[in-house]
Each structure stands twice: as C-alpha cells, then as structure tokens.
Amino acid sequence: MPHIAVIGSGVTGVTTAYELALLGYQVTVIEKHLYPAMETSFANGGQLSACNAEVWNQKSTIMKGIKWMAQKNAPLLLNPSFNLHKYGWLMEFMGNMKHYEGNTIETVKMALLARQRMFEIADKEQFDFNFEKKGILHFYHNADEFSVAKKVNDLLLKGGLKRYAVTPEEMKSIEPTLTGKYFGGFFTPDDATGDIHKFTRGLAKATEKYGVKYIFGQEVTGVQNKGQKVLIQYKASTENMHPHEFEQILEADAVVVCGGVKSHELAYQLGDRINIYPVKGYSITINLKDERSVENAPWVSLLDESAKIVTSRLGADRFRIAGTAEFNGYNLDIRADRVQPLIDWVNKNFDVSTDSVIPWAGLRPMMPDMMPRIQKGKRERVFYNTGHGHLGFTLSAATAVMLGQLVSQTIKV
Description:
Elements: E1 3-7, H1 11-22, E2 26-31, E3 47-48, H2 59-67, E4 76-78, H3 84-95, H4 100-125, E5 136-140, H5 143-158, E6 164-166, H6 168-174, E7 184-188, E8 192-193, H7 196-208, E9 213-216, E10 218-226, E11 229-236, E12 248-252, E13 254-257, H8 263-269, E14 277-287, H9 291-296, E15 301-304, E16 309-313, E17 318-327, H10 336-349, E18 357-366, E19 373-376, E20 382-386, H11 392-410
Parallel strand pairs: 1-2, 1-13, 2-9, 4-17, 5-15, 13-20
Antiparallel strand pairs: 3-8, 5-7, 6-7, 10-11, 11-12, 14-17, 14-18, 15-16, 16-17, 19-20
C-alpha cells in the first residue's frame, strides 16, 4: 500500500487525508501544533458559501484599499510599509483582473462540487459540527450596492448557482431576527454553515478508522527525494513539551503540502513558487447566555455587503461574526480597533447581548488570482493542495477529491 505524507492538519490537510485514505493509500499527517485545526481553521466565519465565490480581482478592491488606508476600522486594511513579498503579490493581484469573470465562474463550480461532497461526508460520518442547511442571505443598504450585486449575481448564475433576489419584506420572512432597514438582498437557499474547527477535528477522528496516522507537535524542516521515495525531515515544534533530541525522518511514496500560509515557504524549499500571502481576518464568537439573545440571534447565515461581515449560528448558544481583510504580513495580533466594529455591527443589527465575546484572528492563505493550487511540484512525488484564501471551508471538500485524482494518476494503489 503506497504511503502518502500530508503536511498540515487544517481543513484542507484533513480532507486531503480523508480522500486519500478512501482511495486506499496509507496516510500520515504531520502537524506542528498539538491538535488539528489550530490556525486558520480554528474560528472562521463558518460559511459553506458557493454564493461568496466572487474573486476579489477588481479595480474597486484596490481603490477601496487605498481609500481606507487611514481608517483603522475599515473592512479592508493595507499596511503601506514596504515589503517586497506584499507589493509583488499586489502587482500580481492587479495583473489577474483580466481573469475576474473566468475565475469567479470556476470558483462557483468548484464550490458547488465541494458543497455536494461536504454534505456526503456529513451524512456518512455523522459527527457533530453545528451543521445547518438554512441558506445564506446577502443584504444591501442602497440601490448602488444592489445594482453592483445584480451583476455579480448574473456571473454566479453562469457558474450554476441557484440564487435569487429578495425584497426587504421577504428578507425578514427568511430571517425574522433582522431589525435594520435594507434596500434588498439575494438568497442562496442551498448554502450552509458549520463550525470549521469542530468539522476538522471530527473528520480527523473519523479518518483514524481508515488508518490515517497523525504526528502532532512536529515541524517539517526539509523534504528530500531518494530513489522512488520521499524523505520528510521533521523536528519538535516549540509547542512540544517532550521533544526528541534529534531530527527524525518519515519515509513516504509522496508528499502533499497543505500548509496554509506556510506553504509559500515550504514550496520555496522544494523549488516551487506558490505565491501565498497571509491576509488576516478577524472573528468574534458571542456566547448566547440569556433567553433573549438565544431567540434573537439569526439562524440563517448572513452577509452584509457594505461592512463585508458574515455570520453563522453555531448551535443554540453561539453566534459567530467574521470579517475584515488585513494586509499586514505574518501578524496574528488581535487588535481591539479591528474587533470593535464586529461587536458594533451586532449591536446595530440584532437585539443580542454582547457581554460575552471571544475575539480571534487568523491568516488566510491567499493566492494573487484567488484560486487554490492543486498541482504537482517540479520534483517527483511532490504535490500541493493549498492557497484557498477565505474559502478553505467552502472549497476543501472538492480540492481534496481533485488532489486524490492527481495523486492516483502518478502513484497507483
């Protein structure tokens, strides 16, 4: 039985391990943290959102970034300090504006495949991750926003998405807890939500019955090709309280890099260019501790276009709100001036108590064209499934299947 090593146990790494195991491979996952899903897959917006498949490669995105540069609470924040990687990435981002329509349509198609596969996994494995199939409602505050949204919607429909316009009255019948004034919205009834952390942890546990092994608290330091094998060198990470004195080696028939924002560095070591930049996002999780808050927090997932904020209901007693995009390097500081707008947004839109709020920040592994990389490396037996940006939860179930097909073309079971 061929042995495949997977680097990283976020949602992409674990779904990859799952699909490879189902194909009949022996799989070992190496993870620097002590548990799965401890970085970007810890507390994102929770949406499985084919409706959010529009890529960001537009002139308007750049213009907003420049306009908001001096506003600390802006949805998109660009640190103007010079960094070669950041500015090189931004130049490539602008160069991909010509692919905006094609990449958006391709992302929709991928997201629909992923949604179907995610539903199959949830049905088959039967573990709890606060899964809700109640759809996603985008809402807009004025005619200009709605007009732009209609053009985007036409593009999403070309990709096969079922999504339709709704009036303010229809919006409040879809989600009765909405209290604000809105111009209109678009509703995607077949999209869903869930807790990405619980999903990844639950799926990791499920993979063990298919023979997947996990090596936690270990950081990959190098990968070497040796004949028909790949040697993965690793050592104890800083989190490991019981480190081995020397570097260790895992021998495998192939390696798959699913390292999130660290994939950029790993690819460089392997002679490949995977130009991922870390785009920081924030979330808050509100603990719904009183009856009023439980009743008034929405169950339908929402996206406020002007604020660039998304929501998901995680069971009876938690409400997740996420948003913002910050170009500020590998920085995980949780800033109060970035968290407060999320809290203010909840207070403005819902009759919910915000006295118990847990803030979080994570780094999205973003490619300049906003498209994930499912590909072979220059070296034999090296593969990548990474660069999903803000759509890791939405796309990973499809890209894991695609990666499995790519591996099976090269390494027969």
